[in-house]
Write a structure and sequence with these properties.
alpha+beta; Uridine Diphospho-n-acetylenolpyruvylglucosamine Reductase, domain 3; Vanillyl-alcohol Oxidase, Chain A, domain 3; 2 domains; five-stranded mixed β-sheet; 18 strands; binds flavin-adenine dinucleotide; Uu.00g010150.m01.CDS01; FAD; FAD binding
Length: 344
């Protein structure tokens, strides 16, 4: 694989300050600890408490279902202040959580109560070294911060996170698998790839009504073991309030020319779905311009959402069809749950 996770910088290693199955909470009064002048916080570091407007920015989450709660937040402006926040938490036995975009939905994060939020959002630097062809980002950087600069520099990051590592192997796999707080990443360096197809993707949004769900899932199953590396197919079972039925909304994206894309998608497109939208999308607009443009509404914060996932080794059409039919029955029986969906 050409992309690789080259280097991780950790502020410190600190084992298990957030239990993932039982509640960890603190009765320590954080105000005197965090406002002690001897902390010498950097000028731009923000310390906030629940009554402060800054506290909302530091802690507001995408989903509020079973969420952690905080007695205070630190938004460090420097790596040294990240270390300081972690050290103070450990010294005073206060549970803490470092967070980036607050988009994570692990329901077990509710195991942290009255803790300290270490909001990494100010550490959102994006540095591109053109000659070394590397991308270095701060620990609070969000994808939206990376997309435009890396695209403008002529690189592609779509395979970045699936690439292999080249250093700090134990840390890399540890941070991916250990759950919260194995350590706090303050920066990471990646090796991006050159732009493919001039950075243009072919995006195909398709709607299949309930009556076509069997043919769609059989077509999807036909890709088992043969799906081209350049093709990504995402399928959503959702409720359509206009038709009063369950439906399939599918977003298929191909990293290549439209001609190649349509050929790769032929088993699905040959079913003649009633609604097809085909567009050329620069990859830096991949999130906002594909999937029926639903990214913005999907990302609205502060909503109650509970998510559950399973890994599929192979996709079974009969299981998908049965799931679709169960969802259709569920939508009819529980109108209040019609915003529920399944993403494959
Ligand atoms: C609608 C939606 C679509 C998604 N689609 C995809 C997808 O296509 N592919 C995919 O891979 N994922 C996807 N995700 C999952 C998403 O990538 C993860 O939830 C990710 O953790 C969110 O990052 P965040 O910075 O918002 O995390 P946060 O919610 O801020 O944190 C999540 C976890 O990461 C830890 N963490 C955050 N920053 C640091 C740091 N600097 N150092 C150490 N630990 C840290 C936190 O402690 C916490 O345990 C999706 C999520 C949503 C809500």
């Amino acid at each position: 694989m050409q992309s690789f996770f080259a280097h991780l910088t950790f502020a410190c290693l600190s084992f298990v300050h957030v239990a993932t199955t039982s509640v960890v909470s603190s009765r320590t009064d954080l105000r005197p600890i965090l406002t002690d002048p001897s902390n010498y916080w950097t000028a731009n570091t923000v310390v906030s408490f629940p009554e402060d407007p800054d506290f909302v920015n530091a802690t507001e989450r995408w989903t509020i279902y079973d969420s952690p709660s905080y007695a205070a937040a630190v938004t460090p402006a420097t790596e040294a202040d990240v270390v300081k926040a972690v050290t103070l938490s450990r010294t005073h036995a206060v549970p803490f959580l470092a967070t980036g975009g607050h988009h994570g939905y692990t329901t077990t994060l509710g195991g942290l109560q009255a803790g300290l939020a270490i909001d990494m959002s100010q550490l959102n630097s994006v540095t591109i070294d053109n000659s070394a062809a590397t991308l270095t980002i701060g620990g609070g950087t969000r994808f939206r911060d990376i997309m435009d600069p890396i695209y403008a520099a002529g690189f592609d990051i779509r395979k970045l996170l699936s690439g292999a590592y080249s250093s700090n192997a134990d840390l890399f796999w540890g941070i991916r698998g250990a759950g919260a707080n194995l350590g706090v990443i303050v920066s990471a360096t990646y090796k991006p790839e050159p732009l493919a197809n001039g950075g243009i993707l072919t995006s195909v949004d398709v709607m299949f009504p309930a009556s076509m769900n069997t043919s769609y899932f059989n077509a999807l199953q036909s890709y088992n073991g043969t799906i081209p590396a350049k093709l990504a197919a995402s399928t959503s079972i959702a409720y359509n309030a206009s038709t009063g039925e369950a439906e399939i909304l599918a977003s298929w994206i191909y990293s290549g020319t439209r001609e190649e894309a349509l050929e790769a998608m032929a088993p699905m497109l040959d079913l003649n779905p009633p609604l097809v939208s085909i567009s050329d999308v620069p990859w830096n607009q991949m999130n906002s311009a594909t999937g029926f443009g639903l990214d913005a509404v999907t990302c609205e914060p502060d909503k109650t959402r509970s998510l559950y996932g399973v890994n599929l080794r192979t996709l079974s059409a009969s299981t998908c069809i049965s799931t679709f039919n169960k969802m259709a029955t569920f939508y009819d029986a529980f109108p209040e749950a019609q915003s529920s969906s399944i993403l494959i």
